[in-house]
Amino acid sequence: MGRTSSVLRDGILGLLKAVIAIIAYALGVTLMEFLFSRLAVSDTTLQMLVAAASTLIGGTGSAWLMCTLFDRKPIRVLGYGWTGGEINGGRNLLQGFVLGAGLILVGLGVLTVAGAVNVTGHSFSGKCVLSSFVLFFCVAIAEESCFRGYVTRNIADAMGNIWGLFVSGILFSIPHLLNPNTSVMSFLGILAAGVFLGAAYVFTRNLWLATGIHFGWNFMQSMVGFNVSGMDMPGVLTMEFSGTDFWSGGKFGFEASGVCLILLLLSTALLVMHYRTRNGQCPMEPSDREA
After folding, report:
1. How far apart are the C-alpha atoms of 170 and 71, rounded to whole Å?
2. What is the pLDDT of residue 14?
3. Are 214 and 197 in contact (CB under 8 A)?
4. N- to C-terminal Cα distance for the chain?
5. Is 71 helix (H, G, I), strand (E, B) or coil?
6. Reduced to 3 DSSP states, what percent helix, strand and coil does the chain have, rounded to the nearest 5?
7. What is the C-alpha separation between 239 and 203, in angstroms, rounded?
C-alpha cells in the first residue's frame, strides 16, 4: 500500500509540475511578446524575428526557472549536453533536421501522388526563408526545452517512460487547440508528434535530436506551402487541396492529415525499435536520471 501511495503521489506531483511549467511557458512568451510589441515593428520579416526572440527568451527562460527554482536542479538536466559519451549535439541536431524535413517531403509526395494536393506555383524570397529558418529554430529550442526537457522528463521520472510519453504528448496537444482551424485530427496529429519527439528525447537523453526534428518539421512545412499548426506562414511553394481534409489536413496543415498520423506512428515505432535494439533497454528510468 505504501509503494502504491508513493507512486501515486509522485505521479500527481510530476503532472502538477508539468502543468505549471506549461502555464509558465505561455506567460513567459506572452510577456516577451508584449515587451517586444513596444518596438512597433511593421516589416513582416522583422515581426517574425521579434516573434522568434519572444518565444526563445520567454519559453526557454520559463523552463530554466522551473528547473532551477522549482526543482532546484541545474539546467543541464533538461538535456543540453553537447558532447560526452554517445552524445554529439551537432550531429543529433542535423540528423533530426533531416528526419523532420524528410518526413514532410515524404508526406507531400504521398499526398501529391494521391491527388490530395497540387503544387500550383512558387515564389522565393531570401529574407522570407532566413526569417522562417530563425523563427522555427527558436520555436523548436523553446518548446523542446519546456515540453520535452521539463514536462516529459518530470512525468517520465514519476510515472515511467510509457506514461511519460503519452501524458506529455497530451499536454503538448492541448495548447495547440488554441490555434486556428483545429479539429479532432489536428489534436491526434499533434499528440502523435509529441510522442515522437518525446521518444527522441527519452532515447538520446538530450534535447538535440528532438529539437532538430521539430525544427526541420516546421521549417519544411512552411517552405512547401502547408499551414504550420493552423497558421499561415510565408513559404516558397503554393498549393491547392482537393478531396477530404482527413487526408490533406485542410487549413490546419499537414499535422491534421491521416497521412501525417500514419507517418508519425510508424516513425515512432521505428525509433523505439532502433534504440531498444542498440541500447538493449529504454533509458531515462528514474533510477538512471541525475538527481
Report:
1. 22
2. 84
3. yes
4. 26
5. coil
6. 75, 5, 20
7. 36
Measured in whole angstroms, the distance separating CA 41 from the mean position of its chain's CA atoms is 27
CB 30 within 8 A of CB 175: no
CB 261 within 8 A of CB 188: yes
pLDDT per position as a tens digit, 218-252 = 999 999 999 999 898 888 988 888 878 888 898 89
CA separation (Å) from 114 to 57, 251, 252?
A: 41, 18, 19
Amino acid making up residue 165: L
Say which residues have a Cβ less than 8 Å from residue 129's Cβ, sequence separation at least 6. Answer: 223, 236
- Give the pLDDT confidence of 160-170 residue by residue, as tens digits: 888 889 999 99
Whether the Cβ atoms of residue 170 and residue 155 lie closer than 8 Å to each other: no
Beta-bridge partner residues of 240: 118
| CA dist., res. 211 & res. 199, Å (int) | 12
CB contact at 8 A, 171 and 22: yes
Query: Hey, what's the torsion of the CAs at 97, 252, 191, 131, to 10 degrees?
Result: 30
Q: 189 is written with which cell numbers?
A: 496529429
Task: Please state, in angstroms and rounded to a whole number, the distance separating the CA atoms of residues 191 and 281.
Answer: 24
Among 222, 262, 231, smallest CA distance to 107 is for: 262
Give residue 40's domain range.
2-288
3-state class (DSSP) for residue 15: helix
User: Length of the chain in residues, anyone?
Assistant: 291
Flag residues of the chain having pLDDT under 70: 1-4, 7, 40, 85-86, 279-291
Question: How many CB atoms sit inside 10 A of residue 247's CB?
Answer: 21
| DSSP assignment of 257-274 | SHHHHHHHHHHHHHHHHH
Total domains in the chain come to: 1
Q: Are 199 and 50 in contact (CB under 8 A)?
A: no
- Nearest Cα neighbor of 261 from 173, 185, 160, 183 is 185
CB 283 within 8 A of CB 164: no
